[in-house]
Amino acid sequence: MKEPIPTPPSTSNASTSNAQIIYILYLVSLVVGVTGIVGVIMAYVYRGDAPDWLRSHYRFQIRTFWIGLLYVVLGMLLSVVLVGFLLLLFWLVWLILRCVKGLQQLERREPVTDVETWLWPK
User: Fold this and answer.
1) Among 68, 59, 36, 42, CA closest to 111
2) What share of the chain is helix, strand, coil (3-state, %, to 5)?
3) How many Å apart are CA 92 and CA 73, to the nearest integer?
4) Which of 60, 84, 96, 117 would give a disulfide with 112, using CB separation of 3.0 to 4.6 Å?
5) Distance CA 119, CA 110 (A)
């Protein structure tokens, strides 16, 4: 007699902990830059088999990486005329706020309220 194949739970602690680790890697990237790259790779890997509410976090994390990279590159280019330092300071606060808001919504097991925003979710 064949045994039934167990189905994995759609919302496991492992899947939410992966998203939590990515947020933490982004925050650590403020000190150790390469952890942001590890985080975005993890987000791309884990988004495929995640439930919809968790997939919104992975999409938000991927957008956070690419938009943040754009802000940093523009800030570095504009630092020649001193405006870039303000943009880099904005990026620092922006990244912290996005990660904290994302972690709060993740802890409540809620989807990100506004994935498409260039600022931070409400």
Assistant:
1) 59
2) 70, 0, 30
3) 13
4) 60
5) 19
Cα 114 to Cα 37: distance, rounded to the nearest angstrom: 23
Dihedral angle at the C-alpha atoms of 67, 62, 116, 110, nearest 10 degrees?
-140
The whole-model pTM stands at 0.85
Q: Report the C-alpha gap between 121 and 72 in whole angstroms.
A: 20
Q: Is 8 left (phi over 0), alpha (psi -120 to 50) or beta?
A: beta
Distance CA 33, CA 35 (A): 6
- In angstroms, the CA 111 to CA 114 distance is 9
pLDDT digits 0-9 by tens, 61-73: 999 999 999 999 9
**If we measure between CA atoms, which residue out of 25, 30, 9 comes closest to residue 102?**
25
CA dist., res. 4 & res. 6, Å (int) = 6
